[in-house]
Amino acid sequence: MRRNRPECDTSPDPTDVHPAWLPPAAFRAVGSRHTLVHGDGLLVDTVLREVRLACATHGGTVRRSADGPPAHLVLALTGRSPQPAETEAAGRPGGTAPATEPSGRTPSVVNDDGMRRVLDAARADLAAAGGGPLGDEGYAVVRHGEVTVVLADAPAGLLHGLFHVVRLGESAFGAPHPARAYRPVMRRRMLDHWDNVDVHPVMGQVERGYAGGSILWRDGRAHPDRARVRAYARLLAGCGINAVSVNNVNVHATEARLLTDRLDDVAEIADDLRSYGIRVHLSVNFAAPVMVGGLSTADPLDEKVRAWWVETTARVYARIPDFGGYLVKADSEGQPGPFSYGRDHADGANLLAEALAPYGGVMHWRAFVYNHRQDWRDRSTDRARAAHDTFAPLDGRFQDNVIVQVKHGPVDFQTREPVSPVIAAMPGTRLAVEFQVTQEYTGQQRHVCYLAPWWHEVLRFTPWGDDGPTVADVAADGGGLAAVSNVGDDPFWTGHPLAQANLYAYGRLAWDPRLRPEDVLDEWIDLTFDPAASADPELLRRTLHEIMDDSWRTYERYTAPLGVGFMVRPGHHYGPDVDGYEYTAWGTYHFADRDGVGVDRTRATGTGFTGQYPPPWSQVYESPEQCPDELLLFFHHVRYDHVLRSGSTVVQHIYDTHFAGVAEVTAMSDRWAALAGLVDPVVHARVDERLAEQQRSAQEWCDQVNAYFHRKSGVPDVYGRPLY
Amino acid sequence: MRRNRPECDTSPDPTDVHPAWLPPAAFRAVGSRHTLVHGDGLLVDTVLREVRLACATHGGTVRRSADGPPAHLVLALTGRSPQPAETEAAGRPGGTAPATEPSGRTPSVVNDDGMRRVLDAARADLAAAGGGPLGDEGYAVVRHGEVTVVLADAPAGLLHGLFHVVRLGESAFGAPHPARAYRPVMRRRMLDHWDNVDVHPVMGQVERGYAGGSILWRDGRAHPDRARVRAYARLLAGCGINAVSVNNVNVHATEARLLTDRLDDVAEIADDLRSYGIRVHLSVNFAAPVMVGGLSTADPLDEKVRAWWVETTARVYARIPDFGGYLVKADSEGQPGPFSYGRDHADGANLLAEALAPYGGVMHWRAFVYNHRQDWRDRSTDRARAAHDTFAPLDGRFQDNVIVQVKHGPVDFQTREPVSPVIAAMPGTRLAVEFQVTQEYTGQQRHVCYLAPWWHEVLRFTPWGDDGPTVADVAADGGGLAAVSNVGDDPFWTGHPLAQANLYAYGRLAWDPRLRPEDVLDEWIDLTFDPAASADPELLRRTLHEIMDDSWRTYERYTAPLGVGFMVRPGHHYGPDVDGYEYTAWGTYHFADRDGVGVDRTRATGTGFTGQYPPPWSQVYESPEQCPDELLLFFHHVRYDHVLRSGSTVVQHIYDTHFAGVAEVTAMSDRWAALAGLVDPVVHARVDERLAEQQRSAQEWCDQVNAYFHRKSGVPDVYGRPLY
Predict the structure, then answer these.
(1) pTM of the entire structure?
(2) Which of A142, A714, B222, B617 gives the lowest tally of CB atoms within 10 Å of its CB?
(3) pLDDT tens across B501-546, in order?
(4) Annotated catalytic residue within A40, A412, A630, A703
(5) Residue A537, SS3?
(6) Share of chain A residues as helix, strand and coil, in percent rounded to the nearest 5
């Protein structure tokens, strides 16, 4: 599948792995030109290696010096000294950069006259544009005469700038333009791996993983295929991710030891990720002092426990100086937590945060806490309320380096949910918003489901009404974004080749949530499929866009309707089972009866969940007339003949959307069939196979959901289509 | 838990295993008397060992000779020579009988005058009673003066006669009575173990096992605890079972090799079972010629395949001369079969039968064949029809030593089903009726559910109407009974101590299906709990009887109503999920909608399944008015307000029975609580723990089923009880 790959390619990823959005062709514009690289440090080495690799493929040249022939591209640090962390990392014995240039030089001043003039002009241009410092990761791009200049204050910025130019391709080398500065909106753009070190008897190696085994772990140790991990780091950097939590939030016995005697395994992964500017975080078990520390308690207010975390964390930093911090799932779905000791989650989070603080580490503390032993008979309890009930009262009690990590919706990564009210409820706390790139509830990478439009809706949502800040603003001011990875050791990384777009888009939206998901999709298509080199670039581009752009709404149409959620097979969560969770302890109900369906979460007659929102949403959601159609059944129990804002009745809407969703999948398959010959045949075959399953599954969803509501309501379809 | 166990006890079962229905106390009447044993052979050795063990505990004496003091009990072969098979088995090096008596003697004629007179009188008595030969396993009991005499033609009969006297206890030694002959109604009384040799990743070591691991296999080999296997054989003989299939009918890779290079493992188990008169059978994979034989086909009409089975079977008999035969699940739930080669099940069964015939082996061929990839939308297909559709046309085509093994109901061991129409459809074929002692669908040995009343109903059912033969008659004339074992390596054998009664009762009903289940229950109670030695024998006896006797109907009441079946959680089949199988490929539906529920299997408007029965049942089941209430929803789709023969409406019946079932479980628990102090505290605690789970589960069943039908029908409970 790696066609057009030259003999001299020294790319670190093995030949049988798909190159995703960084194939050699993506570097054609850069690699066919002359590039100068100014700067020093581990990540500048990486920049140089990337450009050198591109040039080997495409015939350009690259030099790391200030003198020589005129360049088409200048990648330059702006003279600021390398940051301490970078210096240290670069000098570490574990560093993996091939030091082909003499190291120790710090060309902090560009000394070639021609280049100096270009850089001076670019800097002046940037200053004129009102640009302040670019920061740790920002960069500016200027097109000056025949030369494109990327400026950065720090090495990571230079790497991100390089990938920016790669994304632009030839258009980076068009008409001159003044300086444009790019800084990440989110300081931390994190990916959480739910990878188990040991294979779990029920959940397998990657919990909720749909792309094979772990690329980070195998047979209880760090995965021996280091090249694959480095190739992964490169892809993550290429879309903007800068932090990775390397193990499942459900921390079992073996994984608990990563913190102590298995720390070398973590350090090994950290070494590989570091050269692409990515820090390692670790999921830890709140009961670690008992599990691996030999203490009799994990009480957060116990002095011995506190000392244990301080000492243990000191050892972590001694081994991994740029370690990012801890991630904890506590008092949730069986994981231990502070509740066991009569403490609250601020006590718990602050305990670990205190240990991390001296090193600049952060404590990601998940707000996904709820009672999973709920009595389905008791309609007064409401899982959607749980995170707010638990965390909102704690606002202001968390230390500065605690990040409370909040799932974007109040339940659990459903295809459609409202935004979590916790996001508007903790102004005195740093919040990170958590997404799920792995498609647990959205087709498990057997269905095409491009999730960026969904995330974009969440990110631009204004919890306090139109004039207030967005969810993205809250995250940007707080802890940034986190998301569950969709990657495994599958040759396509993500099982479904088109699911790569979700990982790419997550990184890009985390860097800049103002990006339009359709533009990000086109970026990804251009990088991944190289339409320019195809027989029909426009057909290829347009068709892929049409298949993917609306695929999340298509998925929504043929699955659970109107925001009701969780009509999935229990356990594995794939495929329909309308009553699958209806009489269980998981708190995920729809209460369908012969008259109507939906969860009454109003203050007036329901669980009162709407009261967790500030105005205007507390009013909007309270009213069945004002509530957006797509969330109606999340907030209200209504009759089947209730007329939606769309004009349709609830039950006819269910029929219509389900039939429409199936038809859209058919159209998707037809479109994909038309791409035969324009797409790598191996990719084409894999997607073909998945589309067949998606078609089968969509039909099953449609028929089961329609049959269920037809049998319950007795209402026929107005168009007389088959209901079983 | 083995209280009252004397030091000199040489019982073969380990001390931490419950003695089930053969505790030392059960042998009190025999063991405290003087016994003479006449006869020779392996099973007479076993009889002698059993009596000797009893005497060591209870102070009696036993001799194997014709002279000596007067005896209270004479166990005597009637002078017939030992059977060839027994002779051979006794002489084999693998024989395990402790030869404490000088062997080689054949006291075929009783030579003590007193004893000779007793025996002559007993024989005369038997002849006067019109008794013909007692056969391989039969026996006669005479009480003559102060002596009880058990006569048998063959050693196995003597062993069964001994256990008969044990069951009678003191009453075997009461008033004189003339000879009574006992012969098994079913020639073969078989127990099928669904034990995997290797642990299966989904099904575990024992498929549908609820009592721990296998007692026959461990770590891929025959279980090293041979004493446990012998103790098991003793219990089986003690209730009348004489054949055991030692591995799961789903034959995976390792198990397929039991037929060839792993045959020694089977022989080892055969050695242990032989000394209690039990033959070993083996589940084999129809594709064995390919899987382990290196052939390219398993086509039953292929000459090489035929030769392979002939040779392989010859090797089996060379190693295990009294090997019972094969058991095959073919073309079912993924197991291979003759359909793969365009052949039918007669072709398949006859192939293996031919190989077994020279040795007297039998081929048990399961009729459990159906399409498990059914389209739930297609109401014309019907899993209940499948066995009849497949097998009835083949009647007369099976060789004499083929036994077609038919599940008692047309679906799959549900709590309530009609009798399978296959039982009346194959007069030219030897049929065995298959039961399920393991409680897959009847509470998984966490619920008290005494199944004998259910089996008894099936066995006395008259497929051709009142004047015709019963199901028991069909089985007696054919292949007897088979049943899936409920035993594992749990210290109580069956997880739930009271579930031992099901295994006991199965063996007893297989011996004599005319026994009343309530009498068998009392037998089991008396043997197992030794009420005579308790502080309140009557309370103990009566309470246990009350708890267990109606427990199957109690279970039926709180689970799936009116014969509809399969409202269980998919996969593991424990606990309620009314729609769990409703939209699946398994063919197990109820079609509940807002108006009614049930499966229309009539000829008039449904799947036509009723037409598979002969009159009168073809008419009775066709009519919703004549159909027995308890099967109504199996045969008919009716409105919720349909009035049952009981006078109740369907939906009110559902509510009433579910509330009643829960109340009965509460009563059960209360009764059990009253037995504290009268029952071994370890047993009491285990049952207590299970009853708590049964109570929880019954309530869950009740609330879910009632909520489901209330939400669908909208009909309130006439008594206003809570519906959620």
Answers:
(1) 0.91
(2) A714
(3) 999 999 999 999 999 999 999 999 999 999 999 999 999 999 999 9
(4) A412
(5) helix
(6) 40, 15, 45
